[in-house]
Amino acid sequence: MLVAFIALISGCSTLPLVNSSKELKVNATELGNYWLVENGTLDWSALLNGNNGGSFAATFTINTQGQIENLNLEMIAGDFKTDKQMHADFSKQTFIATKTNYLRQAVTITAKVN
Q1: What percent of the chain clears pLDDT 70, i.e. is strictly above it?
Q2: Which residues have CB under 8 Å from 14's CB, separation 6+?
Q3: 9 three-class SS
Q4: What is the spatial distance between Cα 114 and Cα 112, in angstroms, rounded to a whole number?
Q5: In angstroms, rounded to a whole number, what is the distance separating the alpha carbons of residues 59 and 70?
Q6: CA distances, 94 to each of 34, 41, 42, 73 (Å)
Q7: 63 to 17, 57, 89, 111: CA distances (angstroms)
Q8: How many Cα neighbours within 13 Å face the side chain of 12?
């Protein structure tokens, strides 16, 4: 009985936190506990087209439907410019909830792109 209880507790440590009506802030590593990119890899090319050597920070929310919203881009260095079409193209990407994210917890992530 004690072994089963310990196994239950240790097994739960990999599960995402309880669903919240507010999105959780996660890092790039933690994102995989909640959502996976539907096409396999997050495609940054829509934001990189026409930007020569600039680096930026992208902050966005993956909502409960697996869609990107509230995309915010901030230049870190170099010549980085965006327009509405770039935002729209990047935001077309969709995510699939992981098995452990059966409650479809919304998350916000910030990633630096060089």
Answers
A1: 78
A2: 33, 100
A3: helix
A4: 7
A5: 8
A6: 13, 10, 9, 18
A7: 16, 19, 17, 17
A8: 8
